[in-house]
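Protein in question filed below.

…
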Amino acid sequence: MAVVASALAGPTFATMPCSAADSTRRTLAKDAAYPKCWQSFVSDIKGEKRVTPAIKDDVRRHGIPASLRADAYYALSGAVSLQHEHAGTYSALAASTSSLSDDVLYSVEDDVRNVRVTFKDSRLFSTAKGAETLSRIVFAYLQYNPACGYFKGLGHIAALLLTTFGREREEQAFWTLAALLKRRCFPSCDGQASLGSHVEAHALQLLLEQRQPALAAILSKLRADAVEQLATAWFATAFTRALPHEVVLRIWDCLMVEGPKVLQRVAMALVKMCASSIQSCTNLETLCRVLEGRLARTTDADALLSVAFKGLGSLSGSTVDAARARAMSHVQNQQRLRSSPLAPLSMGASGLIAKAASGPLSVSSRGSNASSSSSAGGGSHISSGGLAVCVSRPGSKQAVQWASPKSTGALLSLA
């Protein structure tokens, strides 16, 4: 049975299970008002119909027809091939949660409760059955991709897909979720949102520095990692908790047809459209609140996508891939530094100054065997590999000292 090719390489509709094919035929019979490009795209389900320039343009301007959206997502995301490769897997995963910890179970249940509030106008989640279906999908995904781990936003992404597919197409919604995260949202991280969202946010920072340097400079003055602070949640939730759901679906329509670079285009467009707020806010906390409110009121998907595709200039897939590669290296280096026993030293001056701002602090270096201890006065002593780090809070005086990375005998200090 044929599979669906990647959208970046010329996405196609391929042979679907009978239920999907029948659904599409019913859709076409019910909605004869489709543009010609869509009618030819799905009329021959057993053939392979490529996404034409006309379809791409129509999706940018109008989105995928609502009654065709589920079938298009299922095919274009790569979910068809995933389901065929893993036949029977979903039923097994959905049948048990024994491999998940109590903390994960509680977090998912809490997330599902929040989803029911967010989607309060949806008939699907007005009953317990809808919530149970959503829970099964999320639990199954966490077992299908254990390296991903639970993350805030997984429930919202799954919920929006489920409202698109309906409970009767639960398994197709699951495989579309898996394909969406792996092949569209976080293609460089195998669907691992906790890593991928940081990679995407740092890639955004790099792209802004290239394409919108003035705004990037303003943001960096607020905080060196201001872009990551603002945008990590956008990517981790595929915009589902930042923008109205009708707008998110229009973004996802383009994402399915054109591939992962769409999310970067949309994020850059949001930054550009919020330029006045970025220029007027004097601290990052205020800016986060202002942008949260502005994005929640962003109901004009046409305006947003017009900026994303016409207001940013050329943005090739290779340019985005290069930014992602640099961002991946940066994020992995940061993770290694944070996991190091000598993380305070690895943080450098800026990190230690930030720690000092939260309370008087001193750090000193001396030879020692690997150990850690705490003093009654609130200080702590950590050592590893012949280098000891002492952290204390000496009264009201702030003092910061750290070892020079080139010489364990050299101490730098800030008081």
In short: The longest strand covers residues 407-414. The chain has three domains: 7-184, 193-335, 344-414.
